[in-house]
């Protein structure tokens, strides 16, 4: 694996190798990198979790982080993404972690560059490092994927997490269902209410309503959206024993999930963020070691 672009391209063997290495990092094993590597994080869209988690992971595996601030870069003078990344490559950087508003922005970078690309989110495309940390969270909980019932609920159409997780979980043998308003089902078949899913799901994964991508509430108020599609206190009581709640965050509290459930016993929302650190250490080590 030279780059991490989308979960379509990551084999089940590679997924399991990354999960295993993440578990070793979590157990305190040191990095296996034997030379100096340089990494830069190019975030053209806002991020709290992914950016800080990648930077922490880079430092923990011994890579040198070269700062990049999109708001003070020559992108503002009209430089293309290709020219920006090629310029960074010429500065001796081995890998870039990129978040960008354009779907599949990485396609323009695949010819003519010798730098590893790690996709930290492309438009409404995919978010593979989030998917891998979601997989790690589920695997730690259940010890398998085969037959696990995962329901992904909310703004599916705009969600790169939904797409990445649906691809990866299906490949690994989980059963993936969607609950959302008809307007937000995107390319997927979906249930338009919780009736069939709430009592049978092992994992309920809630998605943020993405106002920045023009996901209006489509005739809902925040309250009515929460009542119809959110995880309410009453719905949580109907979840089966051992079932868990996930959300990639940031959260619209009181919309996707009742605020009192964010840190309830079933919730793995903050655990997902911690798991992300170990997963990103594993991803970076995997890709940087492959560069020799
Ligand atoms: N889950 C996630 O991608 O969060 P950030 O946008 O804060 O990175």
Automatic annotation (TrEMBL):
Q: Which residues form the Aspartate/ornithine carbamoyltransferase Asp/Orn-binding domain?
A: 146-286
Q: Which domain of life is it from?
A: Bacteria
Q: What class of enzyme is it?
A: transferase
Pathway note: Pyrimidine metabolism; UMP biosynthesis via de novo pathway; (S)-dihydroorotate from bicarbonate: step 2/3
Keywords attached to this Swiss-Prot or TrEMBL record, sorted alphabetically, are: Pyrimidine biosynthesis, Transferase
| PROSITE patterns, A to Z | CARBAMOYLTRANSFERASE
Instruction: Enumerate the catalysed reactions.
Output: carbamoyl phosphate + L-aspartate = N-carbamoyl-L-aspartate + phosphate + H(+)
What family does the database annotate?
Belongs to the aspartate/ornithine carbamoyltransferase superfamily. ATCase family.
**PANTHER family from the UniProt entry:** ASPARTATE CARBAMOYLTRANSFERASE, ORNITHINE CARBAMOYLTRANSFERASE, MITOCHONDRIAL
Name of the protein in question: Aspartate carbamoyltransferase
Organism in which the protein naturally occurs = Kurthia zopfii
Give the source lineage, highest ranks first.
Bacteria, Bacillati, Bacillota, Bacilli, Bacillales
